[in-house]
Amino acid sequence: MGTWLTMMQNRISKQVILRVFLICTLLAVVGIEGYYIYVLRNIIEKQSEELNHTSLQIQALRHERVSLEDELHLIKKTAGEKNDGTTAQRQH
Length: 92
What we know:
The protein has one helix at about 1-80. It is mostly helical.
């Protein structure tokens, strides 16, 4: 009877060890997935900030282009340039 009890204790002990190992493994996997999600969120946040900054730069460049086009149009108008790009003859 003593050997049967010892075998049952060994079998239960092995099952407990296996279950504890599996639980620890699952906890480690969940922890790794959580860290991976954290890293991905940081990457997405940085890319969003860079995209926002780039959009602001593009908008500023568009405004600058419009301003320069207006200034060029005014200079051409002051110089007497026609719409086709040729300069009118000045009278002396």
